[in-house]
Amino acid sequence: MAIIITEINIYPIKSLGGISLKEAEVQDRGLQYDRRWVLADAENMFRTQRENEQMALIDVALSPEGLIVSHRKKAIAPLKVPFEPQTEDNQMITIWDDVMRGVRVSDEADAWFTEVLGNETYLYYQPDDSIRPTDPRYSITHEEHTSFADAYPLLIIGELSLDFLNAKLDEKMEMKRFRPNLVFSGGEPHDEDKFRYFSAGSARFAGVKLCARCVLTTINPETAKKGKEPLKTLATYRKDGNKILFGQNLLVVEKGKITVGDEIILEAE
């Protein structure tokens, strides 16, 4: 059975709502626009749903001029975020163990997010010349780099992996809970674990590390309510040491274009 891409997703502002695409440009650091923006506090530490689950209620859309950011519950006018920052305020932003340069987008964006989230918040953009290398332990060329994503340019998950999990859950979950960039049909549950080099469309990728999941997966993206699943159930069959694994992290080997419906061609080792 062919392995076919069924979803392409980007998350332009880290930890906010995703955007489903029919096609996407694969760039060095991941899909175009994916996690090129991040929210940070006054100490330049990145902010995510891990400490503020209300971020799940903020949606992001693409327009010809930039991003349109809106809140699903609060009566506040949408925020327009241009593709190019409106300030020259460069700051070093901390993402986990990495520190990378970001450019503050605008006073308007900072005011919008501060009002919506209730804490002093700033929006930053990663310019092209801000390079954040990926973990050298899982590198191929030692030149790979990424965006404001947790650690790698892309994440891939198979539909059957989610089906296998849902068969064990009392309440089924949608794939958006796991925030993958690529979703595919075909194969067997957790086949993505074994993906090494593969191509899709005109791009080429390498699977380098299984994705360790965190409490963010326990936040319902529709309601921002937190629970115990899916980590409680995944821990019964997807635990390795103290890590719970679901999905495969990818590096970009060759840039190109991918489209929903493209076949994933696995390469022999």
Brief summary:
It holds the Pfam family MOSC_N. The chain is mainly beta.
Task: List its salient traits.
269 residues, single chain, Pyrv_Knase-like_insert_dom_sf, mainly beta, MOCOS_middle, MOSC domain-containing protein, 3 helices, four-stranded antiparallel sheet
Describe this structure in words.
The protein has about 270 residues and is mainly β. It contains 3 helices and 21 strands. Strands 1, 2, 14, 15, 16, 17, 18, 19 and 21 form a 9-stranded mixed sheet that branches. Strands 5-11-10-9 form a 4-stranded antiparallel sheet. The model has no long low-confidence stretch (mean pLDDT about 95). This is MOSC domain-containing protein. It comes from Emticicia soli. InterPro entries: MoCF_Sase_C, MOCOS_middle, Pyrv_Knase-like_insert_dom_sf. Pfam families: MOSC, MOSC_N.
Give the helices and strands, then pairings.
Elements: E1 4-10, E2 19-21, E3 23-27, E4 30-31, E5 37-40, E6 58-62, E7 66-71, E8 79-82, E9 90-95, E10 98-104, H1 107-117, E11 122-125, E12 132-133, E13 145-146, E14 154-158, H2 159-166, E15 182-185, E16 197-200, E17 203-212, H3 231-234, E18 239-240, E19 243-254, E20 256-259, E21 265-266
Parallel strand pairs: 14-15
Antiparallel strand pairs: 1-2, 1-15, 3-4, 3-20, 5-11, 6-7, 7-8, 9-10, 10-11, 12-13, 14-19, 16-17, 16-21, 17-19, 18-19
